[in-house]
Amino acid sequence: MTDADLTEFLPAAVDEAPHSEWAKAEVVVGRDGGTLSTGTLSAPLELAGDWTGILKGFGLDPTVFEVATDTVRMGKWQSSKRLENGDRDTIWLYSYRASFRRRAPRAEDLDLEGLRRQVARWKPRKPPAPATGDPSTFAVFWADWQAGKGRKGGVDSFVAQVEESFELTVARLRELRRMGRNIERVAIFNMGDPLEGCSGAYEAQLFTVELTQREQLNLVLDLWLAGLRALEPDLFASCLCNHGDTWQRKSTGGRPITSDSDNAGGYLSDVLRRVCQESGKGPSQWLIPHDEMIGMANLSGINVAITHGHKIPSPAKETDWLRGQSIRLLRDYGHEPRLWVTAHRHHFRANDFGPWWRFQCPSLDPESKWFEDMSGEWATPGTLTMLIGQHDVRGWSDIAVLGSEP
Hints:
- This protein is 25% helix and 26% strand.
- By secondary structure, it is of the alpha/beta class.
- The strands form 3 sheets. The chain has a 6-stranded mixed sheet. Strands 9-10-11-13-12 form a 5-stranded mixed sheet, covered by helices on one side.
- A hairpin with a 3-residue loop joins strand 1 and strand 2 (33-37).
């Protein structure tokens, strides 16, 4: 077919227009293609697979668009036409429909030799000079230590594992600075369950712990102080947790005696702050909850929400829970978090939900029989670290899980 106007195919005088859904000439164009219809024609088209004229007739460039899968639908029907002498005659009418799409670039249209030369000339960029780029915060997440638990190697092995994690964390911080990362602050987060407790969290707990409640509290405080001396953080933040409230669950059927504020995570953080303030050393900023299950901190321009995670109903409902809590934080703080950090489930995960990222912290606990029995999952113990800030489009970078199997 030539580029002639389609109207030359229209009948001069048609009294009836059956198949009206085919009779209208139209084109619908989207970003990647669309559909077109010729409308009513009085003669069939001699296409022979060539839609160039039709595409041009609708103002579409045949070098840009093509008929999709070469499939064309045709409508054909009879209609009544009045002749010059007043008699009536029956004629055939035609209409065509097709879907079209944007043509994919052909290999012959690409400068393949030019691309090969470009790839051959490419060299990696030189690393940035030390302390360049937007500043960031080195964040360290202590999660689910469960000190006092009778497990692989017992308490002695646990203490050695925590001390090793401190050494690895200090080495990681030095490594990032040598790489040229502009680290302006160091932040430590207690993500919950620093101690095991003695009863009330699960069956047989009384028979598996090696330390009393008092001994567990003192051990965690000593380890926290050692970690602060090693890393010299600017911020210490803490979460309330499920193992932290077992000390107040006596003969009440597992119900809290007082309130959510009566929690070992909060108490240990209070004591840690007092010790540091009395000595004149330690973090300049503290984020210690009263009875709040979610805390919010701003790290180098990025809003980070932290929670232990035991209040999340289930993994299947986590997205809805995060969405609802983000809206509540928007109401309370005036902004939503960019990052969510949780713990409780003892193994590392990272999820990109779009409006925020969610990181689930691994545990230093090498063994969680209850979780393994319930889920069939287990994980390598470790400490989650990362850089947080506006230096990266995601709000974080240089993530690392530090630790080894005891």
